[in-house]
Amino acid sequence: MHKIHRSFCGLCLTLCFVCYVLHRNISDPELSDYLNGKDKNSIIEHENEINLLRNKLSHVTNQEQSSFPNSYQNNITNQLSRCRKWKPSDWLLKNAKHLAPHFKTSPTRFLLPWLYNGPNNQLLGLRQAIFVALHLNRTLVMPTFQKHFNDGSTDGELSYIDANHRLDVPTLQRLISVITVEEYRKRCGPKVDIVFFGTTTHNMQWTVDSLKNAEKLYNLDFIAEKYKPPNTMVGGDSIVKTSFLPAKGSSFVFEASHDMVLSQFESSLSCALYAFPFRELRFVKSEIENTQINAKKFLENGKVESVPGSLLYDIITEHTQCPHYIQEIADAYIEKRFKNKEYIALHWRYDKDDFYKFMCTEGGNKQKANGKVSRFFKTFCREIFNMTSSTLPRGIRGFLTKVVKKSKHLDLPVYVAAPSSLTEWISTGFKQHAVEFGLLYYDAQDLRDFFREEDFMNRCSFVKRNANDVISLVETEISIESSIFFGSRLSSWTDNVKASKKFKRRPSSQLNQIGCNVDVLVTKYAAVVIGSLRFYL
């Protein structure tokens, strides 16, 4: 959904990003120490011409400029320092009220998101909730994130993780007014005036079960009594006892524009819960053509309705990037393993325990909605799950040979992010062809070895407690900073990387691009010509 824009559009986007970020002095010494340390890497370096824009716009912003760190020892030292200074989101929100957001939303109208599914689904859901909150002029209530249901540390139980482990909270505070759940309860009590739904609840028992968890976690009361114990009714159309939107019969998908957000969720009621936001926004590609004009309007009046939907979503994405201690771990890994040179990242999403089960079988979630596996999924699943472990390295070599034609880029390290159940299978193919194809293979196992080498687990207790989360976030950052990225179709993890790559901090090069999706590597580039040899699937 979010693809890299042309360089002209990227130039215009950056014009906006540089101009609207504002800084305020913080009186609390501990908070100032936290924020001053964090801001050293807060501006994203783009192509060389962006620096000229920054010089011309220096009168508009006083935010400190920085580039991708180039000292391994500094990265390790910074990471240790950041680890010790890390604070939970509630502490930051209570102690950083001097941070003035660019969009100061209503102090009497609130939006509390309830996020669901995997970590990246939750992050994209939060971005959508921020988009909606801005257009509805509602103050955002910082939600609690959930660990992945496959996270080994949860023992199969629903487990939560602080928002400041998933994104940098002070950066978000510079965009929109944000309060804690505790503050919401002071203003609203246990009540929810209205629920905004991002998906249907009809015959969806999981929606009832999930909202029961929301009631318990946030100590709220909004589910209809007929769905509470000892009652066992299956989810219907009205599972809450409050008002709800969108109206019955309306679509859950809507255009990402001011008027459409209002038509979907406009309400004068103060205390709103946004249940299950995820991929309901639809963007109009043609609107980006007038980015420069809209950027000027945005700088002049700061009104959210003047900003094109796709541009506003990019701004939100820029303000919801990885925490800085995650970026510094990734920086240190990139420098030590890749010497800060060009490298490839690849995300392989397709495991049989999760993706195949839910997307490729008659009993999968998608099929339960329409009753059958679509023709597209039959073809897609057949191609993906019938390949051999040698197909990926062959596909990458084919891409490098046909697309990246300069020989100096034909030997690159490859970092592969994949479910742990597939690590051994994928690594077998790369190691088998390491000499033949000249590809150096890295994965989460090597990243864990790096963590042990630097003793990251013991430096910060929360890293050890949230090891799987931290590893996944560092892999995300490694992928964002890569020279070429190959992603997985139908993956929110890949979607997040693609949307974030325009904000990468490493100096750009001619290889700074998003490669094809991995299914294209399998079907198009795995048959390649190298010298006089030809390789096939």
From TrEMBL:
Cleaved signal peptide residues: 1-23
GO terms for cellular component: endoplasmic reticulum
One Pfam family hit: O-FucT
Enzyme Commission designation: 2.4.1.221
Pathway annotation from the record: Protein modification; protein glycosylation
Keywords assigned: Carbohydrate metabolism, Endoplasmic reticulum, Fucose metabolism, Signal, Transferase
Compartments where found: Endoplasmic reticulum
Primary site of residence: endoplasmic reticulum
Keyword Endoplasmic reticulum among record annotations: yes
GO process terms (BP): fucose metabolic process
GO MF annotation, one: peptide-O-fucosyltransferase activity
Keyword Transferase: yes
Record-linked InterPro entries: GDP-Fuc_O-FucTrfase, OFUT2-like
Xref: PANTHER family: GDP-FUCOSE PROTEIN O-FUCOSYLTRANSFERASE 2 (PTHR13398:SF0)
Family: Belongs to the glycosyltransferase 68 family.
UniProt name for this protein: GDP-fucose protein O-fucosyltransferase 2
Organism placement in taxonomy: Eukaryota, Metazoa, Chordata, Tunicata, Ascidiacea
Record gene name: LOC100175784
